[in-house]
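Late entry, zinc ion complex.
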Amino acid sequence: MALKLYNTLTREKEEFEPKEEGKVKFYSCGQTIYDDLHIGNARPYVYWDTLRRYLEWKGYTVRHVQNITDVGHLTDDGDQGEDKVEKRASELGVEPMELVESQIERYFEDTKALNIERQDIVPRATGHVNEMINYVQEIIDNGYAYERDGNIYFDMDAYLEDYEYGEMAKKDIEQLKEEAESRVEPDEKKKNQYDFALWLNAEGTGHLMRWGATFQVDGEAVKVEGYPGWHLECSVMSQKYLGDEFDIHAGGKDHIFPHHPNERAQSFAATGEGQARYWLHNEFITIEGEKMSKSEGNFYTVRDLLDEGYSGDAIRLYLVSSHYRSETDFSKEGLEKAEKELRKIRKVVQKIGWDEDYRGKNQFGEPGEDEEGYVEEFEKRIDDDFNTAKAKQFLMKLVSEANETLEKNPEEGESLYAVGYGNFLIEAFEILGIDVRPEVSEGEAEMADTLLEVREEYRERGDYDEADRIRDVLEENGFEVEDTEDGARWFKVG
Ligand code: AMP
Ligand code: ZN
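Prediction complete; structure with ligand written out below:
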């Protein structure tokens, strides 16, 4: 079945066909590393990780690159303002790289808690400054950049003679010109206000992170200590690891302008190719209707939510429960609902049982034998513009149906197992990034067995208060107790 993706470039759902058969080259814009991950930042990373899992499940070999911005992202989206990393570092009284080191560690801890697998390559901007300098030189040599006082600017007028610019943001050039000119502080050094910086001269500024570069401009060597413009790193690192033209480029919807058009323009200017063929943008998470953002201060960090006791699995389930292109207003009730859903899924899976090698071990997807068509239904839903929300809804429907069947007749567990119902649920949730198999060590299982026996004894003696207390202890440890005709049974649900 064919996956369709909404391509921001064309504003249409297009059938996904990778450039090279069977292989997907995928770049997503990553974190500017100066603060803890908030749930809004986590949203795109969870989706892109899920997309990679899904593509792999469909049989593609995927190379996923997601960068880390540790220099160059300014507080203003244009070419003005302070470097975000430097600003925070100076507030804390530490070196920028000291801040980056500690934040990177926290970033990987947080993403791991959300089951986001480390991408195949996680390039850091500061590790690619040489490549960036060479790339700027290419753009100068191709006639699309000029130098003013050691700053290198992208020459939009020269570029527009050969390539388009407004397609991604659906803005025409006059509109872009007007917008750029109405900025508060015009940059007198630019030929046109809609030109943007590729390289900025650090002399006379307080910038700590700076590199020596020599550019050849009109036959003369220009030596300058400076730093890269923010958009440069993604053009450079995506090209280095994925080539001049690759398959998917993803990011938040704030990148529809100016980050992605600028990346694309740089790529055309340097290589003649427009970088990616499919451009994906996720909508925002809001809080009471406002975008969740660090600068507004209205955010929940992943760390805080974990500390409050929400599980990483529940946060992940909550995030994939909405479509990446729909805006979602964050609520803790939503997280609590996801916790409950997880318990329900885990319980059903334990009731049915599964095989060690569960992947592909179900009878739903077999051509000809596929009476139920569950695999197809699941796939059909995600295939429609990567709709994890609808796919998850379908899985929850199956979970509820299995639950009802088992409540009416626990014996049915065997027939559900026989058709691979448990295997299918485990595999499908794994694509969404959630392992629904219980994690119970031998020691824990023994403890739970013993506690259940003791509870039985209390119940036989009619001491229901004590029996309930023991059930509470089990619950606190993530076990749910169910009394059946054949006696009590535990399930690991937390
Ligand atoms: P930043 O750290 O602000 O550069 O954001 C990192 C990534 O998270 C970018 O792809 C942003 O588009 C995305 N992002 C930031 N805030 C939100 C939000 N509230 N909802 C969804 N995505 C967001
Ligand atoms: Zn980027």
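The pocket of zinc ion (ligand 2) is lined by residues 29, 234, 251, 259, 263 (CB under 6 Å). Will revisit in the morning.
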